[in-house]
Specification:
The protein is an alpha/beta fold. Helix content is 54%, strand content 13%. It has a single domain (5-205), classed as Rossmann fold, CATH 3.40.50.300. Helix 1 packs parallel to helix 8 (188-204) and helix 4 (98-108) packs across helix 7. Bound molecules: thymidine-5'-phosphate (TMP).
């Protein structure tokens, strides 16, 4: 039986990395093997594409170039890491996936959703996350949290861009049962207790197919 594919989504400064560690730990404690990864990135080549996407440079990146680079990195990541892991029965916990493309390139940049859908079917061939934790924080709060560090190419966007990103995420989360929305404005302890309980429920719903 194939492993489960779990994704974490949210804007900048919502605490995805911190909480990914918790998710991984809890799934491992339940006896499953876990591959923790991220997008864009997750393989040496895809990490190089990530650097192209995030680095601030003089030449502005065309939105279509950005979209294609994101899917190029995703194709590589799926082929080299995600699909092989799932096929071996391992669980994959991924920091961002295609919901981020709908939110950032669709919502943020205003790119055509149908085009994103086309690339999604080309690259994913029907593969979708089984469970997606969306960490929600109001934009002003998130911006405050990231204010002390250097900003990458996306983090330099204006507030209105991040409002559109958040609105797209919330709209997608409300339309698909694989999403669980976590109010990540609360204290870390409360956020983590909500994530623990979501995962405990999810693990209970999984047949006992441990590969470890
Ligand atoms: P991270 O720093 O949270 O790992 O994400 C890197 C940036 O890449 C983040 O600003 C969001 C952006 N991004 C997109 O614009 N589209 C995508 O599909 C993905 C996966 C990330």
């Amino acid at each position: 039986m194939r492993g489960r594919f779990i994704t974490l989504e949210g804007g900048e400064g919502v605490g995805k990395s911190t909480n990914r560690a918790l998710v991984v730990e809890q799934i491992e404690q339940a006896g499953y093997r876990v591959v923790a990864t991220r997008e864009p990135g997750g393989t040496p080549l895809a990490e190089q594409i990530r650097a192209l996407l995030l680095d601030v440079r003089e030449e502005p990146m065309a939105p279509q170039a950005e979209l294609l680079l994101i899917f190029a990195a995703r194709a590589q990541h799926l082929e080299r890491v995600i699909r092989p892991a799932l096929e071996q029965g391992h669980w994959v916990v991924c920091d961002r996936f295609t919901d981020a493309t709908y939110a950032y390139q669709g919502g943020g940049r205003g790119m055509d959703i149908a085009t994103i859908g086309l690339l999604e079917s080309l690259v994913q061939d029907g593969l979708q996350p089984d469970l997606t934790l969306y960490l929600d924080v109001p934009v002003a709060v998130a911006q405050q949290r990231i204010s002390g560090r250097p900003h990458d190419r996306f983090e330099r966007e204006q507030t209105a861009f991040f409002e559109r990103v958040r609105a797209s995420y919330l709209q997608r989360a409300g339309a698909d049962a694989r999403f669980r929305v976590v109010d990540a404005e609360q204290s870390l302890a409360l956020v983590q207790s909500r994530i623990r309980s979501i995962l405990a429920d999810y693990l209970k719903s999984c047949p006992d197919d441990r590969s470890a």
